[in-house]
Amino acid sequence: MRAPHSPPGEPVVGNAMRFARSPFDVLDTLAASYREGVVHLSGMVGPGIYVVLDPALVQRVLVDDHARYRKPQLRPELVDPLIGEGLLTSEGDLWKRQRTTLQPAFFTSRLRGFGDTIVDFTRATTDGWADGSTVDVHRELGVLTVRIIARLLLGVDLSRADAVDVAEAMEQVGETLALSPGNVVRPPWLQTPPPRTYRQAIRELEDVTARVTAMHEPEGDDVLSLLRRAVDADPDGFPDDELRDQVMTMLLAGHETTALTLTYALFLLSENPDARAELHREVDDVVDGAPTWADLAALDYTERVVHETLRVLPPVWAVFREPLVDARLGEYRIPEGAPMMLPQWALHRSGRHWDAPRTFDPDRWRGTKPAETPAYFPFGAGPRACIGRQLAIVEAKLILATVFAEWDVEVLVDDLPRRAAITMQPTEPVPARVHRR
């Protein structure tokens, strides 16, 4: 075994400052310049970070040898107050209990009943648009997906005002969690306390969570009902804050990746008018009035648009692991506890794995199964893959079809400045002109 190659860095801080300033540029450079399966980015403190650039090694970490790795505790002083030991962050037996408890809420048989709800909420959103007006589609889609997730997974009808509070709080969360030279270079004991605005955002999210829990009727098969029954049956098997942590997790993770996927889809479709026209043609051919669950199979181009968006601009830009003991990954040695990055951004956009990788081309997915494409893992992979990945695709397809059945949407900016937080987020509003068809 050998140590992975380290790109040249700056004195003392190594690669840390450049990565903190321009993470996506650094990942692009690594993917284009290094043929090694693992590259080591050095930093001022600790072991640096090991970037996995070979799809076969990603498969090894996330699937084949998943039990030898765990999720690292990144910025626990910020993440713990936000989602505690929810499904995204828990480990070991607690995670297994949570996953087993929540999985029935995501069964296909249950998803079949979601179509009308997704369409109805989407139409309620677009009913507020004026023909020829300009809207911030990122904000609109964020509020929409919060309300959808609250209804489908938590069993409550969240007011638009509460959904706006969640969306606004999430913007502050993203700003605080974003990579910066300070939080990358400083050791944990020198990190600054969470800013007042972040603490206020968490309080607002907790207020919404409390209202959701108070409104909920625990009689169904939604996430909150399943959790309440499980906690009542085994109170010692779950943390005291189980309900709070899972509601926070579902409100945040359950809506944000879908809202970002749709925002980026509208941006890419605006940059590629032929693709936008093809999407309109398919929706016109398939949809009679409003899309239904029965239409999903025929919305093939729409699904290709979703997958190509997730490839070109992946909301989850990287997943992270650390080995439980010294690990051998291919020919490389990774020390116990060393942070590892498995970057969707780099692998989804690498010329080693894709033809014309920066080109938005939904037709590249014609006859291709995403699940069998090694360099494509927008929802992670293996046992810790996103529990809601099927729902996310269904929701994105139905929202796109509902919008494009009645509207033409053109994003008015030719660039989207983005930050690398837990997800890849726009740093500015995303204005779009909407025209009723």
TrEMBL record:
UniProt feature coiled coil, ranges: none
Cited SUPFAM superfamilies: Cytochrome P450
PROSITE patterns: CYTOCHROME_P450
Cofactor: heme
The entry's keywords: Heme, Iron, Metal-binding, Monooxygenase, Oxidoreductase
Transmembrane segments: none
The keyword Iron belongs to this UniProt entry's keyword annotation: yes
Single GO MF annotation: heme binding
PANTHER family attached to this UniProt entry: CYTOCHROME P450 (PTHR24305), CYTOCHROME P450 12A4, MITOCHONDRIAL-RELATED (PTHR24305:SF166)
Family: Belongs to the cytochrome P450 family.
Protein name (database record): Cytochrome P450
Organism: Salinigranum rubrum
Lineage: Archaea, Methanobacteriati, Methanobacteriota, Stenosarchaea group, Halobacteria
